[in-house]
Automatic annotation (TrEMBL):
The keyword NAD applies. Pathway: Nucleotide-sugar biosynthesis; UDP-alpha-D-glucuronate biosynthesis; UDP-alpha-D-glucuronate from UDP-alpha-D-glucose: step 1/1. It comes from Acorus calamus (Sweet flag). The keyword Cell wall biogenesis/degradation does not apply. Transmembrane segments: none annotated. GO terms for molecular function: NAD binding; UDP-glucose 6-dehydrogenase activity. Signal peptide: none annotated. This is UDP-glucose 6-dehydrogenase. Keywords: NAD, Oxidoreductase.
């Protein structure tokens, strides 16, 4: 019987291993993590992450052929295939700070695998890592377990979209497996992992390639997707300046079969654990390989994203008589996208910081994000979110009196001068906005950072509305724009 162990019980490791166990009932799968609280949550009725459909998959095989444990070393030693899905945060200090990936946790995992292994292992990179990481891991494994056991390294990057992760795992566009196809051991390892996925993934969707191509394909995919978002967000600024409607422009452009409609929705900016981190990593790799022009090209994708968030804050402040000091602003949504409780690199953090910097009073509501998580995010320095919590220093942030967390959207908006929609939760499309309006201070402002509402309907109710990339409300259009700081 094949035994699989995954080091890391996060957003990638947990769902991926659950799907493997679900589709392969004869394979024993164990997910291990040094965080006992995270493992306890995976073994409880309330999983540590929210993902539609995940509860059903986990409960159908948990305790049968899917197990969650904090006994890391014994399960690694007992396994045939070890997936490594640990954090690869952006370095906050030292060489490459602010761009390069910090491989501290990956290196620690590799050294532990070498120390505890009592048999040959296939070690699978599941984290997003820089090109040539496999080579470094190979050296660590072979030099710390010289001649005792054979370690084959594979790259198997994930392409999950949060909110649809279960569907993505059940029916992926492609599965990439990178390995040393020029050696017999490498070919056998590739075949072994391919046989696992082939239980439910059509063979023509399982792509095999060399290690470096697989590692780079993940960074390239995220960079190109983020580039599309930044491109349409750059267009949204031009649309506002000219009176064009970015939704109409995106629809027309997306009808071109060479382009397509996906990832052309203008918004307050992209977030999530991968896009910014992976692009900055790509920038660093380009710089290290003597390609400054290529590095600057990709750096601009991140800069446009930062610009879009700053521009949104500027619209809020300039529209409200150039100050939000002391004003209550309702924040609808804190997660980086709908159908997930993930807040990593969410645009809401930067928008909230911008408003708090102008001394606004915030009232935040999100259906899946806890108050504890919101406050932690607002007190965590950039790039520190991906490290274990006990290693993360807090930064000075707004006093508790400046931030309140509400139990629903109506409570958040009660007595507010403005509403800012920062996550495209479906419930925000269905609210009784007449009720919202009646409970707010007047004039009542509505800033739609996700283009989820009917702008004309809200204006008829009485709101002064700003929607990203849409023709400006006469009120906003006639005001002088505050400069971006």
């Amino acid at each position: 019987m094949v035994k699989i162990c995954c080091i890391g019980a996060g957003y990638v490791g947990g769902p991926t291993m659950a799907m493997i166990a679900y589709k392969c009932p004869d394979i024993q799968v164990v997910v291990v993590d040094i965080s006992a609280s995270r493992i306890n949550a995976w073994n409880s009725d309330r999983l540590p992450i929210f993902e539609p459909g995940l509860d059903d998959v986990v409960r159908s095989c948990r305790g049968v052929n899917l197990h969650f444990s904090s006994d890391v070393e014994s399960h690694v030693a007992d396994s045939d295939i070890v997936f490594v899905s640990v954090n690869t945060p952006t370095k906050t200090r030292g060489l490459g700070a602010g761009k390069a990936a910090d491989l501290t946790y990956w290196e620690s995992a590799a050294r532990m695998i070498a120390d505890v292994s009592t048999s040959d292992k296939i070690v699978v990179e599941k984290s997003t890592v820089p090109v040539k990481t496999a080579e470094a891991i190979e050296k660590i494994l072979t030099h710390n377990n010289p001649g005792k056991h054979d370690f084959q390294i594979l790259s198997n990057p994930e392409f999950l979209a949060e909110g649809t992760a279960v569907a993505d795992l059940a029916s992926p566009d492609r599965v990439l497996i990178g390995g040393r196809g020029d050696t017999e051991g490498g070919r056998k390892a590739i075949a072994a992992l391919k046989a696992v996925y082939a239980r439910w993934v059509p063979e023509d969707r399982i792509l095999t390639m060399n290690l470096w191509s697989a590692e780079l394909s993940k960074l390239a995919a995220n960079a190109l997707l983020a580039q599309r978002i930044s491109s349409v967000n750059a267009m949204s600024a031009l649309c506002e300046a000219t009176g064009a409607n970015v939704s109409e422009v995106a629809y027309a452009v997306g009808k071109d079969s060479r382009i397509g409609p996906k990832f052309l929705s203008a918004s307050v900016g992209f977030g999530g654990s991968c896009f910014q981190k992976d692009i900055l990593n790509l920038v660093y790799i380009c710089e290290c390989n003597g390609l400054p022009e290529v590095a600057n090209y990709w750096k601009q994708v991140v800069q446009i994203n930062d610009y879009q968030k700053a521009r949104f804050v500027q619209r809020v402040v300039s529209s409200m008589f150039n100050t939000v000091s002391g004003k209550r602003i309702a924040i609808f949504g804190f997660a980086f996208k709908k159908d997930t409780g993930d807040t990593r690199e969410t645009a809401a953090i930067d928008v909230c910081h911008g408003l708090l910097g102008d001394m606004a009073q915030l009232s935040i509501y999100d259906p899946q994000v806890t108050e504890e998580q919101m406050r932690r995010d607002l007190a965590t320095a950039k790039f520190d979110w991906d490290h274990p919590q006990h290693l993360v220093p807090s930064i000075p942030t707004a006093a508790s009196g400046q931030v309140a967390v509400a139990w629903d959207a109506y409570a958040a908006a009660k007595g507010a001068h403005a509403v800012c929609v920062l996550t495209e939760w479906d419930e925000f499309k269905k609210l009784d906005y007449k009720r919202v309006y009646e409970g707010m201070e007047k004039p009542a402002f509505f800033f739609d950072g996700r283009n989820v509402v009917d702008v004309d309907a809200l204006r008829k109710i009485g709101f002064i509305v700003y929607s990203v990339g849409k023709p400006l409300d006469p009120w906003i259009k006639d005001l002088p724009a505050a400069p971006l700081s």
